[in-house]
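Researcher: We're teaching a course module on how sequence relates to structure. For the next exercise, students receive a sequence and then see the predicted structure as tokens, so they can try to spot secondary structure elements on their own. Here is the exercise chain.
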Amino acid sequence: MDRNTFTGLFLIMVILAGSVFLMKPSEEEIKKEQQLQDSIAQSKSSPAEENQSTIEDSLFAAQQGLEASTVDSAAISGPFGAAKVGNEEIIVLENDVIKANISTKGARVKSVEIKGEKDYLGNPLQLFSGDKNRFGLQFTTAGININTNDLYFLPENNSNITVAETDSASVTFRLNYAENRYIDYIYSIKGDSYQLGFTVVTKGMHEVVAPDQNQLILNWQAELPQKEKDLKDERNRSTAYFKEFDGDVDELSTTSDDDKELGKTDWVSFKQHYFSNVILAQDGFSGGSVRVITVDGGDIVKSFIANLKLDFNRQDINSYPMSFYFGPNKFSILKDHGHDLEKQINMGWGPMKWINRFITLPVFNLLEGFNWNYGLIILVLTVLLKLVLSPLTYKSYVSMAKMRVLKPEMDEIKAKVGEDNQTLLQQEYLKLYKQAGVNPMGGCIPMLLQMPFMIAFFFFFPNLFELRGESFLWMKDLSTYDSIASFPNIPILNINHISLMCILMTGATLVSTWYNNLVSGATGQMKYIGYFMPLIFFFVLNSYPAGLNYYYFLSTCLTFVIQVFIRQSINDEKIHGMIQANKKKPEASKKSSFQRRMEEYMRQQQSAKSKK
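Model: And here is the predicted structure for the students to work with:
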């Protein structure tokens, strides 16, 4: 063998040895191949059900028309292996008011359309849609965490379902583990309801779910897109609500991110301004948590996350009857669906809530029955309210007239006593009030009694679904501001538009303030404060619904008319005569409890000042 031949053979051996070494399978690849061979061997040698789940899943998938060649062996290994791959299909459940798209992936409600409603861009209103919205049961089996949101269910049929009027229908989605071991999601719908029935049934899963797990977690996540013109306002009125089982309705913060651990709970709601997504459990959720997150930028109002616990009994069949409410936040509709869902609507606090709940809303619903334009309904509602409160208004202006008649005498006392000793000056004023039989608070008390009614509307109109999309005059939508000019946001004032109705309301308030100052004779700081407040309220109410500013405009105009009428009917000379007659009466009979308390307070102040 010559040198060249030897060299060639040596190089060939080096190449072969290097190829064997470099192409040797890794330990991970050897392990995977061994597992695959073991699995094949076990499937051939053992008929036990525990060792047949993967093959049975594959066979079940084949029975549903799936080609065996499209199933990846790695993908179908492990629990629910055959359900890890598939083609997403959409089954539509539809009635007169909602259209729900159910995806075979996770058997979840992928999107919901509210019929007859539009978003701020004029598109059909979708409560939510897209893959970022998740819904599924979470549990552990064989040391593996399962979330049914990621698995493919098999529907009992692939037909869309539409029901009308009082009809009803249902569809079942099944997630198979093995023979007689599965999870069913059963959806049902009625023809005239915003409610979507939902029941979870587990069969034989007590042998699958980890032995130490006595609860299933129902994970629900949703990103709710913008639906209203004012995104900032919509965010400030959107949050998660929940009802404690046999308890009251509570809510998370509307102005910041918030979360809460739940005890036993009847329902949880992902509430936007005018629409809600609610899940209700017939037997209640045994606990869980709920969280709301504000998403910066984009058109997502807020992101919601709920993890709700369902008690899991170690028995062959477990059933969890539930339902969804996908619909508007209209008081009458929510109330008809029960479970205190209507308490999601913010009617105010304290007396304002009761005024709106038992006075304003019933009257509004009564007027709505006449099928009038909502602008006309607000007008009539305002007139009725002013008529009911007119006795208080009259009493207030009579008291103001008395104070106006007494002003010359009060000026004389002020000139005599001086302004340096305020305690003595107030004592002299009280003596005059007592002699004249005048209560200095007589004009304030009637006004204070009217304040709850005025503030109640501050909560009523911004949360009134009926105004959404309703137009009146130049106002295209009474549920949002009527912009006549838009511009880049002004940071200090925090405005980016001008509302015409808010301008009219502010102008009417300034005119009314001018007239009040003229009638009452207000001077000094009080006179200018009256002009300053309407300007502040302009910047507060500029972004509020046109319906609310329209009400305040009407209220101010009607108040002005009533003031003028009362002013013309009140005779200052007659009031002066009554005051002079009161002065001649015994003083003891003219003392009110307020005056006696004020006299005692003034005596104490004067005594303390003299000791110094």
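Model: If you want an answer key for the exercise: The chain has two domains: 81-345, 354-594. The first strand starts at residue 90 and ends at 94.
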